Amino acid sequence: QSYCHRLQHDMYFLTSTSRLNEQVVDKIVLQLNRVYPQILTNEEAEKFRNPRASLHTRLSDLLKHLQKKGDRHCQEFYRALQINAEQLFNDLPSRKILKTPDPTEIDTDKEQYMLNDRGPLFFLACFSMAAGLALFWYCCNSETQVIGRARRILGFSPIIIGRHVRNICMLYLEDISRN
């Protein structure tokens, strides 16, 4: 965007309630009067520093005057604003638009972090819990004859689960088959 368009976009923000005080506006006008090349003539600077006019009117007139003069004048205004009111300069709506990335662009680093924020241990814990519940439900279902098949599955369990857990499961299955 050109500086004139940015200034037009920021005009309401700058002229709204007490964003710029009288001293800051005077400093900006003086800086615009004294820089090389001279942006404001002495007569224009006196006009925009006139204490008889309201601050809102003077600031609005200054911004409109700079927009008529061209892009270089608006750029110098932004430079003066940055020097004299840096916090306000950083809060300008046009600066926030420039800082904001394209909303259609995907930030791959952020996306990767969002997908993998739990880590591999969380995945293994959830998978183990689901597999254990499925095995428990499959073995404890009274409608199916799964004792023989469960013994075959649990026979390979030293690979999957510890020996003590396997022994407990085998004893449990033997108790169920007797009843």
Summed up, what is this model?
The protein is an all-alpha fold and 179 residues long.
Q: Give start-end ranges of low-pLDDT stretches.
A: 106-115
CATH superfamily of the domain at 3-97: Death Domain, Fas
CATH architecture of the domain at 3-97: Orthogonal Bundle
Q: Biggest sheet, open or closed, and with what strands and sense? A: none
Backbone shape = rod-shaped
Question: What is the first-to-last residue Cα distance?
Answer: 82 Å
Radius of gyration from CA coordinates: 37 Å
Structural class: mainly alpha
**What percent strand?**
under 5%
Let me know the number of strands. Answer: 0
The first-level CATH class name of the domain at 3-97 = Mainly Alpha
Mean pLDDT: 78
- CATH fold type of the domain at 3-97: Death Domain, Fas
Task: Please count the helical segments.
Answer: 12
> Percent helix among the residues?
over 70%
SSE succession: HHHHHHHHHHHH
